[in-house]
Amino acid sequence: MRTLYDCGQSEARQDGLRAAAGAVRSGRLVVLPTDTVYGIGCDAFNSGSVRALLRAKDRGPDMPVGVLVGSWTTIDGLVLNVPAQARALIEAFWPGDLSIVLPHAPSLAWDLGLTKGTVMLRMPLHPVAIELLREVGPMAVSSANRSGQPAAASAAEARDQLGDSVAVYLDGGPSGDPVPSTIVDLTGKEPLLLREGAVSASAVSEALGTDVATAG
User: Fold this and answer.
1) Domain boundaries, the chain
2) Successive 10-residue mean pLDDT values, the chain, 216 residues
3) What is the pTM of this model?
4) 43-48: long-range contacts (C-beta < 8 A, 24 or more apart)?
């Protein structure tokens, strides 16, 4: 049974966060607001939940899921190392709408799709998302829409697309323009801009102190 909580009301927000945390811990899916578009998420370390997330989106493992974190320091336990360029981007844009791709720690028992040993990380700038992430830890999160459909800019739009595949919907109000995060790949010798989204390429270059190449 899907349940929607209006996080604009204090009591409903706390009830919703408790319900969402319980759902994540029990392997179910939740929809949460972020500073870009709404996301569908689950426990990043529960491979069954990640597969359920991909099924809900009608998407295969060839399009792996990124991970949202609730603090800067969380990533130290998730990646092989945090290079100076990653620190510079984190200091400049986190929490915010910039995603960073790094080699993940080999010891981690997770299955986010065909990641080729990497993970895409972001700390969102949304109080509801941050509170949930700090309660349950890293979450595998993708945009809350069916594959090929527009990204959801509201909880209602997400519910229309995802329906009962999601246990809890956290309604944090409209997300504004549905602009995705910018993605920077730091797994190679030089930083590579995989997608220019809410953060401009020039802003990324300025933070790194060097021009950033664009993929493709």
Assistant:
1) 3-214
2) 89 97 98 94 96 94 91 92 95 96 89 88 96 97 94 94 97 84 94 95 96 88
3) 0.94
4) 43/136, 43/137, 43/139, 43/140, 44/110, 44/112, 44/137, 44/138, 44/139, 44/140, 45/108, 45/109, 45/110, 45/137, 45/138, 47/110, 47/111
